[in-house]
């Protein structure tokens, strides 16, 4: 004898307990997707900030070199 779940047109089981768990899993998968997108966005912001920091440090070196030439 084989047992099988009965699914309605919505893709969820007709059994309310099973359907509730399926909906919970769907919600958690969405939450994971959102968190992963947030991580990707944060990593891009971090890269941009590091790039700006490197540029500012390079600019500081140039300014310091020019200041030394002017002052002595």
Which characteristics define this entry?
72 residues, mainly alpha, 1 helix, rod-shaped
Q: What order do the helices and strands come in, and which of them pair?
A:
Layout: H1 16-71
Number of strands: 0
What is the arithmetic mean of pLDDT? 90
Category from helices, strands and their pairing: mainly alpha
Tell me the β content.
Answer: under 5%
pLDDT < 50 runs, ≥5 residues: none
Helix amount: over 70%
How large, in whole angstroms, is the Cα Rg?
28 Å
The biggest beta sheet reads: none
Report the principal-axis shape: rod-shaped
The secondary-structure element order is: H
Can you count the helices?
Answer: 1
- Distance N to C terminus: 95 Å
Summarize the structure in words.
There is one protein chain. Helices cover 78% and strands 0% of the residues. With 72 residues, it is an all-alpha fold. It has a domain of 41 residues. The longest helix is centred in the middle third of the chain and has 56 residues.
Short description:
By secondary structure, the protein is mostly helical.
């Amino acid at each position: 004898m084989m047992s099988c779940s009965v699914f309605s047109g919505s893709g969820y089981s007709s059994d309310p307990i099973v359907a509730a768990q399926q909906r919970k899993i769907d919600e958690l998968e969405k939450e994971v997707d959102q968190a992963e997108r947030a991580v990707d966005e944060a990593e891009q912001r971090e890269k941009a900030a590091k790039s700006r920091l490197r540029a500012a440090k390079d600019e500081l070196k140039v300014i310091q070199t020019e200041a030394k030439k002017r002052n002595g």
